[in-house]
Structure formats: structure tokens, C-alpha cells
Amino acid sequence: MKAVLKKEPAPGAILADVPVPRPGPSEVLVKVKATSICGTDHHIYIWNDWAKNRIKPPQIMGHEFAGEIVEIGPGVTSAKVGDYVSAETHVVCGHCVQCMLGEKHVCQNTRILGVDRDGAFAEYVVVPEENVWHNDPRIPPAIASIQEPLGNAIHTVLAGETRGKTMAIFGCGPIGLMAIGVAKSCGASFVAAIDINDYRLDIAKKMKADMVINSKSQDPVEALLEHTHGVGVDAVLEMSGASLVFGQMFKVVRAGGRVTLLGLPAKPVAVNFSDDVVMRGITIQGITGRRVWETWLIGRELLASGSLDLTPVVTHHLDLADYAKGMDLMTSGNCGKVILYPEGVSH
């Protein structure tokens, strides 16, 4: 089969012919219909410091996908050939303290598809049966393939009350853009989107952001305090990882509000905890992954109801062989979600 392979510890990847994997005990083999590029995949492709310390080539990249089960391994009980599926990409141990407490998203022994084991930038991928998510047949493969990052957006938005709340979302990458739609469909009364990229701010408007702010040309602190009459917003969702934002977000959240963090700063950042957090009664939350399977269920219902439309977030459709073009788009920032098709875009 064709697969995008991180062959060696260096920037780039190759399109290689590799054997079709075979499912082992309690595993299924999925024929990939669509797979989407994540920021993590881009980190691996450009070979940044995180990738150097985590990835052990050779390895097939990619983890977000939708496809059809074509073979099942011994011991599989509920999945069957022909099922239309995606997958939770965090393969967890099931026996650590976090797993026993129902907090699988922070399992101590997590192994990630396309990071710690071969992934989905390929014609076929093997996943554990317990990670299989049965897709609503009404959801097309391109949208079904991005339910995993949608779960991150849902987890971030719903970490606190949304109904009637005002929110500021810093960072309009794909997950930030999805968070706008989730917040609006879950009752947020006002959502501001802040970024430095006009291309992505245009998508933010399509995702029903009430205000968009390019922080290169407009001070988000001034704009949001003016809009809220000096009070600030109820919640800040930090999705950018930009260190500058950490000096802004505590100024725009109201006293008693919440700051929910998904973005990953490249370096440690300074925070004035005494004045900005403790004395103002701010709640800070760290978000990782998705709540299994809660956020998947919520995402399926939001999509099925029609209240959440992710179509504007998907901006490019490419053949799997054109993965390098997709990675270049990610580098430029002038894209939303880039979908790759192992059988070609026409399929």
C-alpha cells in the first residue's frame, strides 16, 4: 500500500510502498477513505524539537481519519467488516489510576496513533477495537475524519458553562475555528475570535464569530474591554500557544471568569498569579485530548442536528500523494483543515 512515511530523523517524509498491516488480537483493519493533517503531523514533518524527542522513525504518519473496516482480528466482538468508522487516537492502558477514574484522556501510558505507532496517512490502518468510533452514515468522510480534533474543541468549550456566556477565543487554527462553532451552537451569546491571520479570521466569520480581531492591527484588550464596558468576557479559550497571549488573556477575562488552555507555548511563560489570577478569582483549566467517549457523543449529536457546520473549516482536498503541498499550506497558515484521500480526491 501507499503510505506517508517518516523514514528518518530529519525534516520531510516520503511516499512509500509498504506492506498492508494485519490486525492482531482485538484489532481491526480500516481502509482509509479520508485523513486530515493535524498540527502534530506538521510538527513531525518539519521535525521540530518536540518531534525529535518523541518520534522514532521509520513510522507512518497521521492519526485523524474515516474509513471502512475490511478485516477483523481474533477476539473482536462488536466491530464488523463494512462498518464506517473513525477512531479515538489515544490508545490507553485501561488500568492506571486515571483510566480507573474514567479519565482516559490523561492516561499515564497513552500511546498515540501516528506518533507512537503507525498511523493513518496510508491506504490502510490498524486500530484497537476499543478505539473504534462508529460514524453516523450521514456524515461525509471529510467531516468524519475531523471528529477527533472536534473533540478537543468540545472539551475546551464545555469545560465550563456556555449558555448566555461571552467568550474570547485566541487562536484560529482548525481547533479554534471549530470551537467558535461549538460555542455558538451550545448557547454562547458572544464569541470573539483573535488571530494574526486574515485568511483564518475570514473562516472565523463563517463559523459565526460575533467579532474578529487581527491583533497585528488592533489591540484585543482594548477592543474586548470596550465591547464589554470594561467588565471583560466570561471565558477565554487559549488555542494559540503564543506567549504574547498570556499577557493579554487575563486582562480580558472578567473577575470570577475562566481561562481554559489548549494551546502549547513553545517556552515557559510568565504569569502574574497574585494580581491576575488569585486576587481576581480566576479559574484556570488545562485541556488535553478528548473526554472518551463523551466529547465524541456530543460532536455526533451537534453534527447530526445541523446546529454545527464544519464545512468552512475544511479548506483543501488533496490526493495523499500531494501530502507535501498540504504540509506547505500548514506552514503558510493559509488553510483550515487539509484533507488527504488515499484513493484520490475524485473518490
TrEMBL record:
- SMART domains registered for this protein in UniProt: PKS_ER
GO terms for MF: L-threonine 3-dehydrogenase activity; zinc ion binding
GO biological process per UniProt? L-threonine catabolic process
Database matches in PROSITE patterns: ADH_ZINC
Q: Which cofactor does it need?
A: Zn(2+)
Q: Which residues form the signal peptide?
A: none
- Enoyl reductase (ER) domain boundaries: 12-340
Cited PANTHER family: L-THREONINE 3-DEHYDROGENASE (PTHR43401)
Q: What is this protein called?
A: L-threonine 3-dehydrogenase
